């Protein structure tokens, strides 16, 4: 399973939602070096996090994340 690179020092608590940003680092993509806001990024087990570019499909680098408080409820 592919995972997104995560900037040094950024850690995730498993099974939590975060407000995050991700940057496209694929130089062959039109979105290269663009940053995107993510309203509710789920952390899975805390390490297997995947954010993909909608154009090129490559994993994007997660550059920041803040845990959502309160956590959203989905059913």
Question: What would you note in describing this structure?
Answer:
The chain has 75 residues and is an all-beta fold. The chain is built from no helices and three strands. It has one domain. Strands 2-1-3 form a three-stranded antiparallel sheet, with no helix packed on it.
Structural class: mainly beta
Q: Which percent band covers the strand fraction?
A: 25-35%
Helix content: under 10%
First and last CA, distance: 25 Å
Q: What is the domain total for the residues?
A: 1
Radius of gyration of CA atoms, rounded to a whole number: 12 Å
Q: Could you give the count of β-strands?
A: 3
Major sheet: 3 strands, antiparallel
Give, in order, the helices and strands.
EEE
Tally the helices: 0
Quick one: overall form? globular
In the sheet with the most strands, the strands line up as: 2-1-3
Give the overall average pLDDT. Answer: 94
Low-confidence blocks of residues = none
Multimerization state: single chain
List the helices and strands and how they pair.
Elements: E1 17-23, E2 35-42, E3 61-67
Antiparallel strand pairs: 1-2, 1-3
Task: Provide a brief overview of the structure.
This protein has strands at 17-23, 35-42, 61-67. The chain is mainly β. It has one domain.
């Amino acid at each position: 399973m592919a995972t997104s690179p995560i900037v040094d020092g950024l850690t995730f608590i498993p099974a939590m939602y975060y407000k995050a940003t991700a940057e496209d680092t694929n130089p062959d993509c039109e979105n290269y070096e663009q940053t995107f806001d993510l309203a509710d990024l789920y952390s899975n087990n805390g390490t297997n996090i995947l954010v993909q570019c909608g154009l090129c499909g490559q994993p994007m680098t997660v550059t920041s994340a803040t845990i959502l408080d309160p956590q959203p409820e989905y059913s």
